[in-house]
TrEMBL record:
Catalyzes the hydrolytic deamination of guanine, producing xanthine and ammonia. Pathway: Purine metabolism; guanine degradation; xanthine from guanine: step 1/1. This is Guanine deaminase. Its EC number is 3.5.4.3. Belongs to the metallo-dependent hydrolases superfamily. ATZ/TRZ family. One of its GO terms (molecular function) is guanine deaminase activity. It comes from Pelagomonas calceolata. Residues 81-459 form the Amidohydrolase-related domain. NCBIfam families: guan_deamin. Keywords: Hydrolase, Metal-binding, Zinc.
């Protein structure tokens, strides 16, 4: 712990009030998919929060004179700043087998790979090693905020909280609850699930003395794994916990894959995931449901009415598709109905830890679904930043560079990646070198391009 603090302190060389000057790109809140490009900008940060933003030379002069930052970081002309990326769906224990296990339908996959792997986290030392590697990997990819599932184990869930706090990764974290259909001994009683959830919520609150509400780095969450593994009693109990306090988030899965939708129908004849979650008080404005591929129009309306978010996970959506019933998440239709949509890697149903990969898969998936309008790189990046913040109910805190938000950001070096920028080849239709560099980064970039990562104004990588 001491060594880690020293390492982070060494990274955080900026004084409490500093500024970054150069090009920046971020999501504009006016409409989904709208990206703002600033060729010469300045962002002033004080105690982790953005206190001023300038977007041209005159504004920069005025802002510098007014705020007098103690240090100004000048970006190179081949660099730009972007908001930290938000991953709305990650299963921390599954990171161990990400990149494998892509050969089974969802319900079989869970029994064959997932539950045995998650069961191992009863060993806290094993969980700590695994979670530490995952958090490092996510920060390396430029992910600064993540919605995390742990396992049914309270000690390992609390260890995940500690690791996020130590390494400075913003997160929504919870203990997974499942009191039936776990198989292989990976389940708990209803009472254990509810008591364990309360214990983890308290742990998360107490682990951050002096912070409350949205100022917390880690937010507490209840997680009914999904309808098939939760009895109505468990869903009702978790709904009660979510209602008791306004600082409790909810995560789960809804209408993910054909075999899962069918299983829900056998357990709750004639009912859909949305109705079941809503009737138990689990569809709230602090709730994010993963996948939602097979939601009907009326269910999307319910999501919009309740302010619930969706984690669009295009890679695992495709892997668990059971074609020919496959279709993509209705990205534009959901936005048009007012649903909050973020992107998720869904480690390890999706094998890549980078949300940029999820952006690319969202674009490809939309091309394959004839019923859907194309999702382009701007739509996807918007969803991977401000969209994700909105889906998690954290958009007053992060998601883009607006005054009052936290400085969660990534510094991109366009020349450091596994591709060539070729500025001389900018197409006449492309408005600027910055847009050219941004499109290349979203489509071709990886952790090599990510020169530094900030969360709450502190360097974490
Ligand atoms: Zn999942």
């Amino acid at each position: 712990m001491a060594a880690l603090e020293e390492k982070l302190a060494a990274l955080s060389t900026h004084p409490p009030k500093f500024a970054v000057r150069g090009r920046f790109v971020h999501a504009n809140a006016r409409r989904a998919g709208l990206i703002e490009f600033v060729e010469d900008g300045l962002i002033v940060v004080e105690d982790g929060a953005i206190i001023a933003v300038a977007k041209d030379a005159d504004q920069i002069k005025a802002v510098l004179a007014e705020h007098r930052p103690q240090d100004v970081v000048e970006l190179a002309e081949t660099e730009f700043l972007a908001p930290g990326m938000v991953d709305c769906h990650v299963h921390a224990p599954q990171y161990a087998y990400s990149g494998t296990a892509t050969d089974k339908p969802l319900m079989e996959w869970l029994q064959h790979y997932t539950f045995p792997a998650e069961k191992r986290c009863v060993d806290v030392d094993y969980a700590k090693t695994l979670y530490s590697a995952l958090v490092d990997r996510l920060l390396m990819q430029g992910t600064t905020c993540v919605a995390l599932y742990a396992t049914i184990h309270v000690p390992a869930t609390n260890a995940l909280v500690d690791i996020c706090l130590e390494k400075g990764l913003r997160a929504v974290v919870g203990k997974v609850c499942m009191d039936r259909h776990g198989g292989d001994g990976y389940e708990e009683t209803t009472a254990e699930a509810l008591a364990g959830t309360r214990a983890c919520l308290d742990y998360i609150r107490k682990a951050q003395p002096g912070a409350s509400g949205l100022s917390r780095l880690v937010q507490p969450c209840v997680i009914p794994r999904f309808i098939p593994t939760c009895t109505p009693e468990l869903l009702a109990g978790l709904g009660d916990i979510a209602r008791e306090s306004d600082d409790v988030w909810v995560q789960s899965h809804a209408s993910e894959a054909p075999d899962q939708v069918k299983f829900v129908d056998t357990l709750h004849p004639g009912k859909r995931c949305t109705e079941i979650f809503e009737s138990h008080g689990l569809l709230t404005d602090k709730c994010v449901m993963a996948h939602c591929v097979y939601l009907e129009d009326g269910e999307l309306d319910t999501f919009a009415r309740k302010g619930a978010g969706v984690a669009c996970c295009p890679l695992s959506n495709a892997i668990f598709s059971l074609s020919p019933g496959w279709h993509a998440f209705p990205f534009h239709k959901a936005h048009a109905k007012g649903v909050r949509v973020g992107m998720g890697t869904d480690i390890a149903g999706g094998y890549a830890a980078s949300i940029l990969v999820a952006c690319r898969h969202a674009a490809v998936a939309s091309k394959h679904d004839m019923g859907e309008k194309d999702v382009d790189y701007k739509d996807a990046f918007w969803a991977a930043t401000l969209g994700g913040a909105r889906a998690l109910g954290l958009d007053t805190v992060l998601g883009n560079f607006e005054v009052g938000k936290q400085f969660d950001a990534v510094r991109i070096n366009c020349e450091a990646g596994n591709y060539d920028t070729f500025p001389s080849a900018i197409h006449p239709c492309c408005p600027s070198r910055l847009e050219h560099d941004f499109e290349k980064f979203v489509n071709l970039g990886d952790d090599r391009n990510i020169a530094s990562v900030y969360v709450q104004g502190k360097r974490r990588r």
